[in-house]
Amino acid sequence: MPSSLTPDMIPLMRAAMADGPSLPDEALTRDGAFEVEERAVPGPPGAPDVSLLVCRPAGATTPLAAIYHTHGGGMIIGDNRVGVDGVLDWAQELQLVVVSVEYRLAPEHPHPAPIEDCYAGLAWTAAHAAELGIDPERIIVAGASAGGGLAAALALMARDRGGPALAGQMLMCPMLDDRNDTPSSHQMAGLGVWDRTANETGWTALLGAARGGPGVSPYAAPARATDLSGLPPAFIDVGSAETFRDEDVAYAGAIWRAGGSAELHVWPGGFHGFDMMAPQAAVSQDARAARLRWLRRVLGS
Fold it and tell me: In the chain, what is the straight-line distance between the N-terminal and C-terminal CA atoms, in Å?
């Protein structure tokens, strides 16, 4: 992936993903460890149905905790199978159900379409927990990059709408701030994966001319939230060498100042997506182990 993604490159990126390897059902089942299905459930009022990828441990007879997953891709690319392999690692270790939501992408579908799709899927999942074999009191929202931002927004939305009571929010290198003006966003201009130009492309696709201006909803850009009280425990991690570093550290600090719980890790030298691109690196192994420890603690597994 080039560092600087511009709007004219969005179709090329989507085409490359469509031609590339996808995660087939055979891979998702992990030799029979999971039962896999896609469900179409009601979307937001007046909008199309939302597709949920459901992976359930085979043979489970009691309600299990669940990860509700929102995929990454800068709000402009990806589908509900992106990033699921890492979530299945947690699920296999801790016996979790995984539900991964397909949401509409920008710029064809700007805010609030993506987050409303995610929320509709979450509300349906919680309401149909018994049918899915899920313990409704142990649902964690989780995502990386844009998916991390959507997971944070889901936690805000669930709190404000009296929605599902979430057990936690796992925010991996989350994309939180449309203003794109932190020191780390400037430091990483032209460097690494998802630089400042790419970030501007993603946020502009989602928000159009409103990006960076007043009045942007915290459900689009959670860094805009002025009240972070009453949220479920958060796990936030980010690399020290990526655009999102400073906004993610600031979000953890804002949760603490609001009296909430957040576990923050800044992985030394980590670039955006380092643990997916270099999974055998020591820092990647540390990051993956820290996430699993937090899940185990929050879920009491």
Answer: 37
Nearest residue to 275 via CA among 193, 205, 195: 193
Partners of 16 in the beta sheet? none
User: Regarding beta strands 97-101 and 50-57, do their DSSP bridges make them parallel or antiparallel, or are they unpaired?
Assistant: antiparallel
The answer to whether residues 129 and 135 touch, using CB atoms and an 8 Å cutoff, is yes
Q: Is the separation of the CB atoms in 69 and 101 below 8 Å?
A: yes
Question: What band does 20 get if pLDDT is binned at 50, 70 and 90?
Answer: low
Which letter does DSSP use for residue 22 in this model?
A: -
Q: What is the DSSP letter of 231?
A: P
With 0-12 CB in 10 A as exposed, 13-18 as middle and 19+ as buried, what is 108?
Answer: exposed
Residue 266 pairs with which residues in a beta bridge? 238
pTM of the entire structure?
Answer: 0.97
Phi, psi for residue 66 in degrees, rounded to 5:
-135, 150
**Closest listed residue to residue 100, CA positions, set 72, 131, 77:** 72
Reported as a single tens digit per residue, the pLDDT across 204-230 is 999 999 999 999 999 999 999 999 999
